[in-house]
Amino acid sequence: MASPLFFLLLTFFLAGTASSLTCTTQKLTDARNRLYSNCADLPVLGSFLHWTHDPANASLAVAFVAAPPSPGGWISWGINPTATGMAGAQVLAAFMNDGAVAVKTFDLKSYSSIVPGKLSFDVWDVRGEAVGGVMRIFATVKVSEKGESVNHVWQVGPSVTAGRLDKHDFNPPNLNSKGMLSFNGGQGTQVSLVDPITKKKNIHGILNAVSWGVLFPLGVIIARYMRTFPSADPAWFYLHVSCQVSAYVIGVAGWGTGMKLGSDSEGIQYSVHRNIGITLFCLATLQIFALFLRPVKDHKYRYIWNIYHHSVGYSIVIMGIINIFRGFSMLNPDKKWKSTYSIVLIALGVVALFLEVITWIVVLKRKSKKSTTKTYDGYDNGENRQQPFNV
């Protein structure tokens, strides 16, 4: 029986081998049993690409290597002739089927149409293999005779259901798995760390965090606690309005970028996040217009307006914070962003709690002072009414 030490050493050996795996350590050959001319360690998803360009027949022989995130998962590589993302890409995908690696072609007309289909260019010598949990796709594709590079994409997914690829994750590595592939290998593979879609998502997140998550709560704090002090009137009102109007303008910009992202990302839907965002926009718009219908202080319906205004305002704050954290979970940014916003939110909460205590102390003192102050009613010691002086 093998000793535990043997298994421990074997584990360290395999771990060291996996960590040292690079494209140069992989000796892969094309359909003609020739080593590929170029290779690259792709920057995300632990993937590798080998390729050889043959200008004589305008072809590109490739070998894509990646490990699916789970044993029943899939890998894919493709070329996008018209854009830089997944939509419009011509893709080869590999997955296990009845104990063998199946390779199918996909014409990704949109994110919602992920079904096998013929590619827009010729492809031959297609095969796949699996070795030690890693899959490989081999193929030769037709490219432009005058072209020197192509936009390529790659991806990995967790599972396959009835021959259909299940959705992959939407983490930054999955969203950034694209780049430019130079035929001669001189430029290698170039991948932007922040693609245009991710940049728009970041802008969307920052705008909404500042508006719904900071300025709106700050405006509520100003209105609730500053008006307790008579000396702050009417300054608190103008500060409150300025804060809320600024939050609304920034929030509308964030809402607009979100709607644009939704229209540009067909097939990718975050229904709850989207619906909360639309509700926030509607309620905030209602609040702004309700300002013009605000009754004067002594109007008999003023208390009804106050109930409405406060209820809608607190609802906006609560839903805004919830939606911001939903956005964090979807965008999955660096932890520092979520931590920073959490610290800001906690700071606002601490300030609000402190001011709440101060406000109650002031209010209770005022009530106590009123109850102990007796108004002179014209009686002497409460018994005999004092007569006016005769002049």
From TrEMBL:
<feature type="binding site" description="axial binding residue">
    <location>
        <position position="240"/>
    </location>
    <ligand>
        <name>heme b</name>
    </ligand>
</feature>
<keyword id="KW-0349">Heme</keyword>
<keyword id="KW-0249">Electron transport</keyword>
<dbReference type="InterPro" id="IPR006593">
    <property type="entry name" value="Cyt_b561/ferric_Rdtase_TM"/>
</dbReference>
<keyword id="KW-0472">Membrane</keyword>
<keyword id="KW-0732">Signal</keyword>
<feature type="region of interest" description="Disordered">
    <location>
        <begin position="372"/>
        <end position="391"/>
    </location>
</feature>
<keyword id="KW-0408">Iron</keyword>
<dbReference type="InterPro" id="IPR045265">
    <property type="entry name" value="AIR12_DOMON"/>
</dbReference>
<feature type="domain" description="Cytochrome b561">
    <location>
        <begin position="164"/>
        <end position="364"/>
    </location>
</feature>
<keyword id="KW-0812">Transmembrane</keyword>
<dbReference type="GO" id="GO:0016020">
    <property type="term" value="C:membrane"/>
</dbReference>
<dbReference type="GO" id="GO:0046872">
    <property type="term" value="F:metal ion binding"/>
</dbReference>
<feature type="binding site" description="axial binding residue">
    <location>
        <position position="309"/>
    </location>
    <ligand>
        <name>heme b</name>
    </ligand>
</feature>
<comment type="function">
    <text>May act as a catecholamine-responsive trans-membrane electron transporter.</text>
</comment>
<protein>
    <submittedName>
        <fullName>Cytochrome b561 and DOMON domain-containing protein</fullName>
    </submittedName>
</protein>
<dbReference type="InterPro" id="IPR017214">
    <property type="entry name" value="UCP037471"/>
</dbReference>
<keyword id="KW-1133">Transmembrane helix</keyword>
<feature type="binding site" description="axial binding residue">
    <location>
        <position position="204"/>
    </location>
    <ligand>
        <name>heme b</name>
    </ligand>
</feature>
<dbReference type="Pfam" id="PF03188">
    <property type="entry name" value="Cytochrom_B561"/>
</dbReference>
<keyword id="KW-0813">Transport</keyword>
<feature type="transmembrane region" description="Helical">
    <location>
        <begin position="305"/>
        <end position="328"/>
    </location>
</feature>
<feature type="domain" description="DOMON">
    <location>
        <begin position="45"/>
        <end position="157"/>
    </location>
</feature>
<feature type="transmembrane region" description="Helical">
    <location>
        <begin position="235"/>
        <end position="256"/>
    </location>
</feature>
<feature type="signal peptide">
    <location>
        <begin position="1"/>
        <end position="20"/>
    </location>
</feature>
<feature type="binding site" description="axial binding residue">
    <location>
        <position position="273"/>
    </location>
    <ligand>
        <name>heme b</name>
    </ligand>
</feature>
<feature type="transmembrane region" description="Helical">
    <location>
        <begin position="203"/>
        <end position="223"/>
    </location>
</feature>
<dbReference type="Pfam" id="PF04526">
    <property type="entry name" value="DUF568"/>
</dbReference>
<feature type="transmembrane region" description="Helical">
    <location>
        <begin position="276"/>
        <end position="293"/>
    </location>
</feature>
<dbReference type="InterPro" id="IPR005018">
    <property type="entry name" value="DOMON_domain"/>
</dbReference>
<feature type="transmembrane region" description="Helical">
    <location>
        <begin position="340"/>
        <end position="364"/>
    </location>
</feature>
<keyword id="KW-0479">Metal-binding</keyword>
